[in-house]
Amino acid sequence: MNIQVMPEHKLSSVAPMKQCNVEKKEVELILVKDQNGVQYTNSSIIPTNGCRVGPPGSSSEDNRETWGKKIDFLLSVIGFAVDLANVWRFPYLCYKNGGGAFLIPYILFLFIAGMPLFYMELALGQYNREGAATVWKICPVFKGVGYTVILIALYVGFYYNVIIAWSLHYLFSSMTTELPWLKCGNSWNSVNCTEFNGSLPDNSTSYAKNKNTPAAEYYERGVLNLHESSGIEDLGWPRWQLVLCLVVVVFILYFSLWKGVKSSGKVVYITATMPYVVLFVLLIRGITLDGSMDGIKAYLSIDFKRLKTLEVWTDAATQIFYSLGAGFGVLIAFSSYNKFDNNCYRDALLTSTVNCVTSFFSGFAIFSVLGYMAKKHGVKVENVATEGAGLVFIIYPEAISTLPGSTFWAIVFFIMLLTLGIDSAMGGMEAVITGLSDDFKILKRNRKLFTFATAFGTFLFALLCVTNGGMYVLTLLDRHAAGTSILFGVLIEAIGVSWFYGVDRFSEDIERMMGFKPGLYWRLCWKYVSPAFLLFVVIASLTSSDLSYDNYVFPEWANQIGWGVALSSMLMVPSYAMYKFCSLSGTFREVCIKICSAHNI
Fold first, then answer.
1. For residue 500, pLDDT beyond 90
2. Residue pair 39/31 in contact by the 8 Å Cβ criterion
3. Residues annotated in the binding site, as ranges?
4. pLDDT, tens digit, for every residue of 311-338?
5. Can you tell me whether residue 524 is helix, strand or coil?
6. Mind giving me the DSSP string for 228-251?
7. Is the pLDDT of residue 57 over 90?
8. What residues are designated binding site for Na(+)?
């Protein structure tokens, strides 16, 4: 075995990098080369008890599977990071927070916090070759952080899969000659449904908030059946159409993940690349529409005065964090299947940059169509601009329905949403599977069964989100399941790696993998800047307004349940630390008793 030892360690070439209590050792001498008449040999000690020599991943006995190709890993990371939020959230945030001026805090936070955290997680997983929980063998008292992020990833699967199911429902509904959200007069429409074929009667009314358009009524009444629920206390029965779509989504996830990265690495060839093809096609179509330039100008309009408000900086900080996807255990899980000497530094720079450029690029495809909608109805862009589900399930589909060949454009658009969601959901579920499988070997030996159990479990809980009042459950989970809790988890993770395990030791780990240490910039970000950034975002998340959906304000008991969900994951950190402390205390007492007994004290 050829052991590479860093010069600063000043160790003999025949010394193992870790002390192992072995009774028998064999010295292996290997002829390396003959140079200038001198023969050089390389020697190493082969321990007979299986103790790992050298850094993790260097052992020939490490049978952990790896990605089939490097591109499989890159596409998986990009596919996970580039999700629905890149399309339905960033463009609107950029528009409302000063247009081009918003890019200043966004890019600043990308370099001082986003990329460093992204790089840290990739390096952490690749060096230790473990999932989110067992990776904390580097500092066992922080293992609770691993359970926190695994639980959060599981919670997100409860409702994120439902959004993918909506996309699938719209995709099936688009396969008609006339799109169902084009006109009123359908079974789901109310008597107040109004078709606006020209200018709106009142320009002061925001068209994006109008609940009586055919597209808005199709979404809330035809798909969600929300009008049959009075609130979160009145959920009703699951909608069978959405249940069937949810079943299809769960089966796609299962068969994408059941064989590990060997199967998921091939699925992302479609799911990670398709959105870029569709976005480009939609952009080309969008800029040919009347009024598209007005939308793009509104998207890029620069208002530096907005930078004086705290809201802009808070939005930029939270967006860069959630956009890159650090803290969900996915990056650690994905990178744990890399080869030990893979250049994860280059991967971190590449994939995080691609993710942010995609967010910016998608804004052109979105706002070119919003400009067309504003021109069509004779209103300002601000009256049709919105974010979230209202953008991709109401405003954009309505715009598509008015175009020639609307069926084709609708199918293409919802295929994009479907693929954006699928690979992100795959990443979240892989974080759960890898994290727990590495911790409990019986699960690893029965991966297919465990994958099925995980997928089926998320399906059962997701049924609450496809009821008549399921939108209220989804809103509650979206706010609390991965809000303050995930920010808290990553804050503790950054502190654990930088302050307890140590930046210097972590840098040496990276040097063992890639042959060079991270520069001073990265070490300062890991130790000071990133934790400070995360603390700022955690505090900002605690100042958010009361939970609501449109005009419906959630009752106090619903907020308490939401915080209960958040605390259920956050409490994993102190709970495991307490358990570890008690275990160590017990061991310490036993040692003291033995010492005292040996000396008759």
1. yes
2. yes
3. 79, 81-82, 86, 323, 355, 420, 423-424
4. 889 888 888 988 898 888 999 999 999 9
5. helix
6. G-SBTTB--PBPHHHHHHHHHHHH
7. no
8. 79, 81-82, 86, 323, 355, 420, 423-424
